[in-house]
Every structure is written in structure tokens, then in C-alpha cells.
Amino acid sequence: MPKIILIKTTDYEEMSQKGAEIFIEQIKKKPNSILGLATGSTPLGLYKILIEKNKLKEISFKDVITYNLDEYCDIPKFHEQSYYTYMNQNLFDHIDINRNNTHIPNGEGDSKLNSDNYENELNKVKIDIQLLGIGSNGHIGFNEPGTDFDIGVHEVNLTENTIKDNARFFENDINKVPKKAITMGIKNILDSEMIVLMASGKNKANAIKNIISGIVDKNVPASALNLHKGKVYIIVDKEAASML
Ligand code: PGA
Hints:
Blueprint: E1 3-8, H1 12-29, E2 34-37, H2 44-55, E3 65-68, E4 70-72, H3 83-90, E5 102-103, H4 111-123, E6 129-132, E7 154-157, H5 160-166, E8 180-183, H6 186-190, E9 194-199, H7 205-212, E10 231-236
Parallel strand pairs: 1-10, 2-3, 2-6, 3-5, 6-9, 9-10
Antiparallel strand pairs: 4-8, 7-8
């Protein structure tokens, strides 16, 4: 059984702080840590804290290696909303990381080939901490409800729910939101040594309630965390905890 450690915080800032503390401790303990990173609104505060600590020279990313969860297909790598751009703007451009040590799935071209390549890369390493946000429908990475827990990196069709949730990044126009993505599978996520999932806001409350209830159900992808063999930190703000 995994050890789910629930950390209730008051707001987004405190959630970010608690999440950042786990990453800071990890990087101090193991300077060549392998980190699984996430995108979206949730990790922005945590990334800001890591940037600050790096500027203060409290931590260095010189030997840190990163693997991102997912990337959109259908938009170019340099599109302003690609996860490649997001990672540069919100973390990599501001820290002393070696870009050769950063990995993001390739959303351009042949998805099957790109998925297989990323899977092969992941199979050569063991991620020390995997950071996760959670979709309002319970997705992790872009593993939408109904995804089998034992598949690796793959192409997905985003659900209507996710397209609507992400329209805020695309001028609120669902037609502009990519309809496909490449994502680590739940298998890859469960292969990591430790998991840190953060959630903020009322729209995440139901998904959080489902994980904490201990269910394991394909229709709630994040419930797969109940199968993880290591520590799983779930860090929530007041609103995300409102159904617990
Ligand atoms: P968000 O997305 O952090 O932008 O809410 C989380 C997710 O969809 O996994």
C-alpha cells in the first residue's frame, strides 16, 4: 500500500510553499536528482520559489535532470502555449539547469514514434519525485478517465472537459485548444520513487475526495495513486479539501 500523506494548507501560496520544500530538500540531498515536472496553473507558485532559492544559491540545478509529463500535439514546439515554451518561461530560463538535462515529449510529427522514444528514455531512469497537478475530471498528466493504468507514453485525445478547462490559455476559444497530446502513462507515473500532487480550488475537490477515499477506478485516473509503492504527498488548499 502507498503511504498517502495528506497536507492541508490554507491557500495557493502555502500549498506552493509546502510543495517547494519537498523539492528543495530532495535537491539538497541529491544534487543530481531526476525530477518529473508538470505544467498548468498549479505548479507556477512552486516554480517561483525554486527560482528564488536558486538565485539565492541555496539550491543548484546544475546536475538536476528533468522529464515533463506531457506536451500538446497539433501546435508547434515554439507556440506560446506549448509546454516547451511554458517550461522555458516559468522555470528553465531562470535557473542554472543544463538544457541537455531537460526532457519534454515531442508533440510534432509522428506521435507513435515520439511516444516510443520518450518511453525508451524514461525506461532508462528512475524519477525521484514526480510532480502532478490534477484535472477537474481526475486526470493526471493527460491520462483522461477510462485510461488503462498499465500503458506507457501514448497519444491521447483530450476530453471535452479538459479542452474546456484549458480554453483559458487559448483566448477562451475551444476551437484553438489542441485536441491531442502526448503524455506519460499512469504506468510511468507509478514507476517514480515518490509523488507530489498539488491541488488548489473548488473544482478539484471532488477528484481529491475520490483519491483520499481509497478507490481505485479507471474513471478517476488519479485514484491510481492508491497503487503507488512509495510515498505520495497530496497537498491541497482549503477549497480543494472542501469535500474531505
Ligand atoms: P491546472 O491543470 O494546474 O492548470 O489546474 C492541472 C491538470 O490539468 O493536470
